[in-house]
Structures are given as structure tokens and as C-alpha cells.
């Protein structure tokens, strides 16, 4: 088990894990039209870590290249902290996947560099079809995306034509094009509740844990695709209970892509942004955080002086698949960011017909949000905030 404890911006690894240049990754690969679970295998590159001197030079080069190319860097909360810092200081954006795409759509820059995983670049292209979208590594993918191939998912939908198809943002452009609605976790629960109130039966894909969380909250009739996020799927309820005993005053912050026995122990269940807000605003000094380790950079900046404790991903002596950090998010580095700006390669393309069809479920969600969504604010009173956050889904 690897546990990171963050306090005052410093990190301490209780165990140092070996890294390889290329690593194999197992992920949930649904079988039998998505209703039962198998195992798929993929791979992820592990970027070389530059020296301190090389980092300084790379950052200077990236700043100059962003200016030269009139490009804007948009980064996800889960990528390396140094990429997040570069995005912030150069006028870019650090956010969840939808806000990244929304920022890119609304910004005047005609070149966007998306530091994240491939579906994020595709979503940015769908919302900004005439802009140039670059990524540090086009092979950076997602276990939820991999576990929901469009041909199989389309067959699954065709077998249940009476159901409304709702897909999570963590899917390919082609899967989005097959859907009626796309949701992020920050509004998925509200949309499903609205569909349920209208008597609609739902196909949900791809994350079974988030889908189960929403089904439990709404009572909706949901047929689940059995995918999962390899990071959040590894959080363990038993080990979390033991960790809570070590830190009895800590509040537990959980992303709802986590298993139900982890979600059940949460003081706050929420998206990446809402978990950061909770750490900042709730009256506690210690927080156990069950989501990707990448979030801890922004969370620590928002909550200086508070102690952030990573939730355990496996039992003692067990081998973890992700160790609480997405292996594909880790493929974004300073060197390949500088390289893509220099060479202008690794451009994201989405077939125009697919992009136009995929935009329909995205725009439905955005229109729904404009009509119904109110910003979730933490008051600092945990009893009240727990109710407030209980209706928030994952990012």
C-alpha cells in the first residue's frame, strides 16, 4: 500500500514504488453486451522525470512557445502539479473535463493544448470544431473509455430501444454520438432525476459505481454498463475504515466513481471541484481524500495548513493497479508538452458528422444546467453541507 500524506504543500511517500518506461494496465472490460464484467489489458507510457535544471529550462521554453503559438493550456486536476501551475500562470485553465472544454470554447485562442486524456481533447474539439486542439500524448486514454467500445455499446443500446441513453463524459466522441444525454458528475444526478420523474427508463454508461450512486439517490430504472475507473475502483472500504480509526477527527471526501462501501463512509461525496471546495470551507483540519492524487495540488493551495491524507487503494502487501494516480494522466509531462508546441503534432480530429451528433447530448446537458443548476456552496457546517453535497455527482 502506498499512502501519501500532504501537509503544507509537502509530500511524503511511505513506500517508493518502481516505475517502468512502459507499464501494462488492467481495466474492466464488460462482456455480454455490457452486463457482466471481464478484464481488458492496455498499456501506458511512464514519462521520464526531468532534472531540476531541465524542468526550469522546459518551463521557460513552454511559456515562450505558448506565446509564440498564441496557444492556451488547459489542464485537468489530475495531471502533474507543474503542468497545472503553468496553465494557471499563463492565463489558461485548471478544471474538470467539461469546464476545460467550456473554457476552450469561450476563449479567443485558436490553438488549445489539452493536458489530460483523449476524451477530454475530443470534447474540446466537439465544442470548438474550428479550433486546433493539441495534446501532449494522443495515447493517453481512460479505462472508462476503453471499457465502452462504440460497436458493442451501440448493439447494447439497440437491444433496448425503449430506454433513454445517458453517457458519462468519460467516453469517446463516437459513444457520445450514440447517446441522448451526456452528463458530468456535477449534474448527472439532477438529469437522471428529471428523466425518472418523466417516466423514462435509462441505459447508463460506462461507470457502474457512479451509476449505482445515482440510481440509489433517484430510484430510477437504470440498466448499467459495467465499466469502472481503475483509480477509483481500487479504493477499499475496509482499509478506509482502518484509516479513519487512525485519524478520528478527519473528514472523508469521496468521488462517487468509488465503490459503494467507500461512498458510504464519506462526509462529502462530490466532483473534483466540490471536493476542493469542501476541503477549503469545512471546519476540519484533516481530510481523507478518495480520488486521484493529482487533485491534492489544487486542494492544498485552496486549503493551506490543512492535512490531506490519501485514501488507501489496497490492503497491506497487495499490489495496486493505479496506486491512486491515473497512469494515462501521468503521460502528460513537461517534455512532451514542449514538444507538441514546438512541432504542432498530436492534433485531435473528430469526424465532423460524429462531432455534430455528439454535440447534441452535450448541448442538452448545458441547456439543462442553464435552466436548473445552481452553484453548490459549502457553508462550513458539516451537517448542512452533507445534505448539500449528497446531490452532487462526479467530475
From TrEMBL:
GO cellular component, one term: cytosol
Cofactor(s) listed in the protein's UniProt record: [4Fe-4S] cluster
Top enzyme category: transferase
A Pfam family: NadA
UniProt keyword list: 4Fe-4S, Cytoplasm, Iron, Iron-sulfur, Metal-binding, Pyridine nucleotide biosynthesis, Transferase
Residues that hold iminosuccinate according to the record: 76, 97, 168-170, 185, 255-257, 272
Protein localization: Cytoplasm
GO terms for MF: 4 iron, 4 sulfur cluster binding; metal ion binding; quinolinate synthetase A activity
Pathway annotation from the record: Cofactor biosynthesis; NAD(+) biosynthesis; quinolinate from iminoaspartate: step 1/1
Superkingdom in the source lineage: Bacteria
Annotated residues for binding of [4Fe-4S] cluster: 142, 229, 326
Catalytic reactions on record: iminosuccinate + dihydroxyacetone phosphate = quinolinate + phosphate + 2 H2O + H(+)
GO BP of this protein: 'de novo' NAD+ biosynthetic process from L-aspartate
Cofactor annotation remark: Binds 1 [4Fe-4S] cluster per subunit.
The EC number(s) this enzyme carries: 2.5.1.72
InterPro entries, per database record: NadA, NadA_sf, Quinolinate_synth_A_type1
Function recorded in the entry: Catalyzes the condensation of iminoaspartate with dihydroxyacetone phosphate to form quinolinate.
Similarity-based family: Belongs to the quinolinate synthase family. Type 1 subfamily.
Protein name: Quinolinate synthase
Amino acid at each position: 500500500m502506498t499512502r501519501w500524506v500532504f501537509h503544507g504543500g509537502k509530500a511524503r511517500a511511505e513506500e517508493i514504488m518502481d516505475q517502468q518506461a512502459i507499464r501494462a494496465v488492467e481495466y474492466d472490460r464488460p462482456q455480454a453486451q455490457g452486463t457482466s464484467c471481464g478484464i481488458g489489458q492496455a498499456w501506458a507510457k511512464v514519462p521520464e522525470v526531468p532534472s531540476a535544471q531541465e524542468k526550469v529550462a522546459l518551463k521557460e521554453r513552454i511559456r515562450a512557445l505558448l506565446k509564440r503559438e498564441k496557444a492556451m493550456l488547459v489542464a485537468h486536476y489530475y495531471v502533474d502539479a507543474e503542468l497545472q501551475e503553468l496553465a494557471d500562470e499563463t492565463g489558461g485553465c485548471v478544471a474538470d473535463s467539461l469546464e476545460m472544454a467550456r473554457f476552450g470554447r469561450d476563449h479567443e485562442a485558436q490553438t488549445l493544448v489539452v493536458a489530460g486524456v483523449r476524451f477530454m481533447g475530443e470534447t474540446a474539439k466537439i465544442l470548438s470544431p474550428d479550433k486546433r486542439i493539441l495534446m501532449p500524448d494522443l495515447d493517453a486514454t481512460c479505462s472508462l473509455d476503453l471499457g465502452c467500445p462504440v460497436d458493442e455499446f451501440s448493439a447494447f443500446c439497440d437491444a433496448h430501444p425503449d430506454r433513454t441513453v445517458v453517457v458519462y463524459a468519460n467516453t469517446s466522441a463516437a459513444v457520445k454520438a450514440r447517446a441522448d444525454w451526456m452528463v458530468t458528475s456535477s449534474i448527472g444526478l439532477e438529469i437522471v432525476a428529471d428523466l425518472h420523474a418523466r417516466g423514462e427508463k435509462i441505459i447508463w454508461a460506462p461507470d457502474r459505481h457512479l451509476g449505482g450512486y445515482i440510481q440509489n439517490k433517484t430510484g430510477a430504472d437504470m440498466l448499467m454498463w459495467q465499466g469502472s475507473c481503475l483509480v477509483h475502483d481500487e479504493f477499499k472500504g475496509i482499509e478506509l475504515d482502518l484509516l479513519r480509526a487512525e485519524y478520528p477527527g478527519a473528514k472523508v471526501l469521496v468521488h462517487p466513481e468509488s465503490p459503494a462501501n467507500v461512498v458510504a463512509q464519506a462526509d462529502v461525496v462530490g466532483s473534483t471541484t466540490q471536493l476542493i471546495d469542501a476541503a477549503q470551507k469545512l471546519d476540519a483540519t484533516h481530510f481523507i481524500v478518495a480520488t486521484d492524487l493529482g487533485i491534492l495540488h489544487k486542494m492544498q493551495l485552496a486549503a493551506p495548513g490543512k492535512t490531506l491524507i490519501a485514501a488507501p487503494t489496497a490492503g497491506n502487501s497487495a499490489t495496486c493497479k493505479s496506486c491512486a494516480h491515473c497512469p494515462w494522466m501521468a503521460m502528460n509531462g513537461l517534455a512532451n508538452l514542449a514538444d507538441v508546441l514546438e512541432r504542432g503534432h498530436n492534433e485531435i480530429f473528430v469526424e465532423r458528422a460524429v462531432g455534430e451528433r455528439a454535440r447534441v447530448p452535450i448541448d442538452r446537458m448545458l441547456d439543462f444546467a442553464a435552466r436548473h443548476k445552481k452553484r453548490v456552496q459549502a457553508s462550513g457546517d458539516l451537517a448542512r453541507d452533507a445534505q448539500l453535497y449528497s446531490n452532487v455527482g462526479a467530475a
